[in-house]
Design brief:
This protein is α/β, with parallel strands linked by helices. About 35% of the residues lie in helices and about 15% in strands. The longest helix has 21 residues. Bound molecules: flavin mononucleotide.
Length: about 375
């Protein structure tokens, strides 16, 4: 099946993309002391040169003491780190690319890959790393206000440096998601509550702060997931009605595009329909959405951290869904990590030249 549906242009507000392929945000930990190096810039530039429509950066952290869980994760604050990011966006633009930083705060999520720990206090809604595991104090109201402001400042910097959009990491059990999740948010103030809509308040405030910082025209993308790294089976929204109650305040706060993270894009979100998460999010909010999860690969990404290899897989199911506009954009993670030329090869039908994904690809910035 020809991949034409992936190569239609896309426009939303000031964001103009030549095709529907998005590089998924992927932490690489190649930025010593939080500063992206020239090698990091060259890594993103190679994807821009090879026809990726929109590049989302690896998660890059806002200015809170415990926002990251690895010293080599890039910061999105401070003169040196921002100078590193300026080089990144300038090189991506020179190659004809379009890019958004993914603004991140890990909250209380632990990193199994390192024993390094950020300086306290750890920010989390109720001091839990996962349900039942309380190890620290809940965030104070002052810490919450400062964190919301820190996201806004990072977004203002993204705009000042010339990035084309911003993405907020609200998924996978990190800080913003810890507020959504009942298991990790047991607050009794305005940032907690029995309903998902109430627990969406923190995310909505972050989106408002970011929107105020970037103005009305710059696109704000919000990444969400039902699943958590602490528990793959968790579902925040069990029905379309609950999903609508979750997403509506986030859209009203100023989100333009919802990035709906699944580990396997083809898995239906609710019984009785084959729509996936991005399909439902688009149907319920009317907003453009991004799908993601094992596009073009046989196995999913968490297993690949454990060493499982994946082989190139057919794009037909994805293309059928894209042709009927179930969602608007398609994020590709590991296939683009392993092969900067992936988008070009797909457009030219060079499928026999696509690579397997092997864990070794994580060891360098190729
Ligand atoms: C090495 C690696 C690092 C990742 N880091 C992030 C991250 O910083 N932020 C994020 O939202 N997702 C992160 N992810 C998840 C990816 O964005 C994507 O959702 C996932 O890999 C599924 O896409 P794929 O099957 O095409 O790889 C990471 C995935 C990988 C493989």
């Amino acid at each position: 099946m020809a991949a034409d549906a992936l190569f239609r242009p896309f426009t939303h507000k000031s964001l103009k993309l030549k095709n529907r392929i998005v590089m998924a945000p992927m932490t690489r930990s190649f930025s010593p002391e939080g500063v992206p190096t020239p090698e990091v810039a060259a890594y993103y530039r190679r994807r821009a040169e090879a026809e990726v429509g929109l590049i989302l950066s690896e998660g890059t952290v806002v200015a809170r003491p415990s926002a990251k869980n690895d010293p080599n994760v890039p910061d999105f604050h401070g003169e040196q780190a921002l100078a590193g990011w300026k080089r990144v966006i300038d090189e991506v633009h020179a190659a004809g690319g379009v890019m958004a930083p993914q603004l991140w705060h890990v909250g209380s999520a632990r990193n199994p890959m390192t024993t390094w720990a950020a300086p306290p206090p750890v920010d989390s809604p109720s001091g839990f790393s996962s349900p039942g595991k309380k190890f620290t104090e809940p965030m104070t109201e002052e810490a919450i206000a400062d964190t919301i402001a820190a996201f806004g400042r990072a977004a203002a910097d993204a705009r000042r440096l010339g990035f084309d959009a911003v993405e907020l990491h609200g998924a996978h059990g990190y800080l913003i998601d810890q507020f959504f999740w009942e298991g990790t948010n047991q607050r009794t103030d305005a940032f907690g509550g029995a309903t998902l809509a109430e627990r969406s308040r923190f995310a909505a405030e972050v989106v408002k702060s970011v929107r105020a910082a970037v103005g009305p025209e710059m696109v704000v993308i919000l990444r969400l997931s039902q699943w958590k790294q602490q528990d793959f089976k968790v579902r925040l929204a069990a029905t379309p009605k609950e999903m609508e109650a979750w997403l509506t305040p986030l859209v009203e706060a100023g989100t333009d595009i919802l990035h709906c993270s699944q580990r396997r894009f083809w898995e239906p979100e609710f019984e009785g329909s084959d729509l996936n998460f991005a399909g439902w999010a688009k149907k319920l909010t009317g907003k453009p959405t991004i799908t993601v999860g094992s596009v073009g690969l046989s196995g999913e990404f968490i297993a690949s951290f454990g060493g499982e290899s994946s082989k190139p897989a057919s794009l037909d199911n994805l293309l059928h869904r894209l042709e009927r506009d179930e969602f608007d954009l398609v994020a590709v993670g590991r296939a683009l990590l392993a092969d900067a030329q992936w988008a070009r090869k797909v457009r030219e039908g060079r499928n026999h030249e696509l690579y397997d994904f092997k864990k070794e690809a994580l060891a360098s910035l190729a």
